[in-house]
Amino acid sequence: MHIRILGGMEIRSSAGETLRLPTRKASLALAALVLAPKGVPRQRLCDAFWADRGDAQARSSLRQALAAIRRVVASEETGILIESDGETVRLAARPEDVDVRFFDHLAERSDPLHLAKAADCYQGDILAGIGLPGALDQWFAPHRRSYRHKALLLVERLSLLSGPDLKAVEAGCQALAERLLSIDPTAEEAHRALIRLHQRHGRMNAALRQFQFCKETLQRALGVEPEGRTRELMASPRQIAVASATTDVSPPRELPSIAVLPFQNLTAEPDQDYFADGVVDDIINGLSRYRSLLFVIARNSSFTYKGRAVDAKQVGRELNVRYVLEGSVRRSGSRLRIGGQLIDATTALQIWSDRFEGEVADIFALQDRIAESVVGALVPRVREAEMNRARRAPTESIDAHLAYMQAMGFFHTWSRDGLDRALQLSYRAIDLDPNYATPYGLALGCLFLRRTAGWGADPAQEFAEARRLCERVYEIGRDNFLSLGSAGFALAGLLGEHERGAALIDESLVLNPNASATLMQSSFVRTWMGQPDLAIRQLQRAMLNSPVDVLMFSMHTGMALAHFVAERDDEAYAWAEKALQRNPIAGPAIRVAAASAALLGRPLDATKYLSLLRQLDPGLRVANIGNRIPLRRPEDLERLANGLRKAGLPE
């Protein structure tokens, strides 16, 4: 038995016979289960697949669909089973029986032949060619985007492999690159892979033709030039042809650079993942304090590797870092053990490893020791003064810090319930230690996201609360770059105090000039203030500092808005579409896409995006645009309103 959902959908028996489920909804329900190895709540399936029916009828339809799946697919003989505990439904299967799971299994391996097999698994986008209604398209779109991103990373990884007897690997790489370009001709990772293959075999004219095709496609489709990494491949083709294929094409950094990967949670309870993630957050922040000695990759890029088996060399190439810190966390009652190993990503050799044990109450001291050990290993002559400056616990209350760790876990779900829970836990941390600045910044982030998503319960009360939190950060958090950045962003975005907000963010950037999230916050504020070119420079730095950030769509949205304010509508539209390729329901990007398309005289695109925007924000009108985006200059707000008006937004 084999289930394929990459490049369409197909079910084949062990004898090679094509099998079909009786209804389209049953087939799509099977695809949803395939994509969720840990299972899907029954209620969520009912809400997404049978939203037009009452609760009882929807549950009955789900039972019928599951019964059909069991009859056709699931049995002891096939090894594929439908498991249910009453609340959650799960498809249990061996990786080799389900293409997306087999792809993930192979892509995590380091052996070139396994990677080539993974490339062969990717036959196209998830459910390609199958028309999906709006609600189900929103269900599958994040998975489609995720697997295409994985395939792009894989094709570049394959093209960088070197060594003897790689013909099968190169053939797989070429086939995958061509498939990806047939889906998206602007995929630069695939263009780069083909250029490298041509150069490796001395086909310089073919490499040049591929580059020219890439350049012309990007200009025609997006109005942009190829990325620096693509242009650098053609800087000296003959030299690159004989160079090591593993040479990174990203610009080198002056300071030693390091990525801290998510630590493995060795605690028996899986719900303690938030604690291991919180430990890593704190270590990243601790290392960031040595800003004159180290360049530390942002959390959002490091955490794209969570749950994946990757080697240090791969991380080094993809994040352009020299060193990788890996580790594990085990918590047993009040005891805590943290293990870590520092690896040179260019050689995969271990530089340092150690184990740190103590009480949970000693967590800050343990994290300081890890940070100091790493810095000491990388910069042997580190000054004692620098160590003393960085060695400072943010709170004396371990319970407050544990509450903050939990809050961060909920915050990164980006859901309404998650933000509500994160806000509650932030307030609990504040209650436990009113002088602990970090949770104030997180609470402000929750308030801002709730407002922009239309989830705020009482705007007047939340504005007053945001002001109180900002004033408190100003009093106690002047040495905390995270809290300062969040307070400045809230002052500008929620309270309309752009100048003061920008000043606080500037203070934050003095404390940590490489913080990608803070650079992104600053860029939005600068755009709102009418300084789009400064915003673009900050976003370019942020994207360099955090090249595979899970919030890259927000950075692309920032670029789109900045170009729109600068009245460069072609660039604005191109960046908005780039953001929507990563997150198809990013409201701020959809606003820019609709307005810029209308101003460019593209009524079909403008209508398409305005329709999607009104689905996501039914209450949006020309008269209340200013409630959604705090543009300070009247001419910028009027330009946005005019664009959306031309797209068809009611007054």
Automatic annotation (TrEMBL):
<protein>
    <recommendedName>
        <fullName>Bacterial transcriptional activator domain-containing protein</fullName>
    </recommendedName>
</protein>
<dbReference type="InterPro" id="IPR036388">
    <property type="entry name" value="WH-like_DNA-bd_sf"/>
</dbReference>
<feature type="domain" description="Bacterial transcriptional activator">
    <location>
        <begin position="98"/>
        <end position="238"/>
    </location>
</feature>
<dbReference type="InterPro" id="IPR005158">
    <property type="entry name" value="BTAD"/>
</dbReference>
<dbReference type="InterPro" id="IPR011990">
    <property type="entry name" value="TPR-like_helical_dom_sf"/>
</dbReference>
<dbReference type="InterPro" id="IPR051677">
    <property type="entry name" value="AfsR-DnrI-RedD_regulator"/>
</dbReference>
<dbReference type="Pfam" id="PF03704">
    <property type="entry name" value="BTAD"/>
</dbReference>
